[in-house]
Write a structure and sequence with these properties.
Length: 322
């Protein structure tokens, strides 16, 4: 019963936020580098840190994690309203990650591993934020990841937290998984959710000793990393907004529906996660299997990306010849 109440509470909070955002003109205006064409309310993802706060009050998550998520959400929300420099964003991320390390007792681990996890977590948070570019993609991907964590027996004690975060995705999805979205997550939503997923990934790996669960985030990770290397190769500024991700090519240049592309990404990730869980339950998710799986994903992604880019280039040539 409490979860039904939470769902309606989250929907109500979203509706209240829409009134506030509309009054204070917290909007996302389309530009040449965005994937939308109409003015849309920004920051609806504020429901994610709100859900973390409620989960903390209910005793589902520790205060260091709650503070970490709320801190990055606060700075990101300010950035959504008035763009900030890189420094305050980096500082907030660093403090938040330190709080996550404290909660997971990572400071007791070998000191050499801390900077590695720090860089990976910073990279993941930014990659997840970069991938938030079309309707539905962030919330559907987050929901699939949370659902996958929920199916792991080791996370049984964390089910109330996962359910709470999953319900916040459902509430946000009502207004975002549409042809014409009512709201976008904004940095406040994408960055706070990314930090939560990163935290829970580290926690799950520590509990199970299974590094293969990193592949729960592989679809986003591969697209983000390969796109970054592609842009570096082209000597582009990787910190500037762009439309170079595969999902952006599919939605913008090839004209596929945002929802179809978002469902494709989340559906592929869900299929991968299901197979990983199946292999782990059979005791077959060894490191060679994980590496082979990752290489297969990368090769498959590159083949699809190259085919899509060729198709886009052919269209441009056809247009020029007309």
């Amino acid at each position: 019963m409490i979860y039904v109440a939470l769902l309606f509470l989250f929907i109500g909070i979203e509706l209240i936020y829409f009134k506030i955002a509309d009054h204070y003109n917290i909007i996302d205006k389309p530009n040449s580098r965005s994937s939308h064409t109409s003015i849309t309310l920004r920051g609806g993802g504020i429901i994610f840190p709100t859900a973390i706060l409620i989960a903390c009050l209910l005793g589902y998550v520790s205060w260091p994690v709650a503070i970490a998520v709320i801190l990055v959400a606060l700075i990101s929300f300010i950035d959504d309203i008035k763009p900030l420099s890189q420094l305050p964003r980096f500082v907030s991320h660093a403090i938040a990650i330190a709080l996550v390390f404290y909660d997971l007792n990572l400071f007791a681990q070998a000191i050499w591993i801390l900077p590695i996890i720090f860089i990976l977590l910073i990279g993941w948070v930014n990659a997840f934020n970069f991938m938030d570019g079309i309707n539905g993609i962030t919330v559907l991907y987050a929901f699939v990841t949370i659902l996958s964590f929920s199916f792991l027996g080791i996370n049984k004690e964390s089910l109330p937290l996962l359910l709470t975060m999953g319900l916040s995705c459902c509430a946000f999805g009502i207004f975002n998984v549409r042809k014409k979205a009512k709201t976008f997550a904004g940095d406040v939503g994408s960055i706070s959710m990314a930090l939560f997923l990163g935290y829970f990934m580290i926690k799950t790996i520590m509990l199970t000793g299974q590094i293969g669960y990193l592949l729960f985030l592989s679809v986003y990770g591969i697209d983000a990393v390969i796109t970054i290397f592609t842009r570096i190769k082209k000597k582009e500024n990787i910190l500037e907004p762009h439309r170079s991700h595969l999902y952006q090519y599919l939605a913008n240049e090839l004209g596929y529906s945002h929802i179809v592309v978002s469902l494709l990404y989340s559906g592929i990730q869900l299929s991968i996660n299901g197979l990983l869980i199946y292999l782990e339950n059979r005791g077959e998710l060894s490191l060679p299997v994980v590496v082979s799986f990752l290489l297969f994903e990368i090769i498959f992604y590159l083949l699809i990306r190259n085919k899509v880019v060729q198709k886009i280039n052919m269209r441009k040539i056809d247009i020029c010849n007309k």
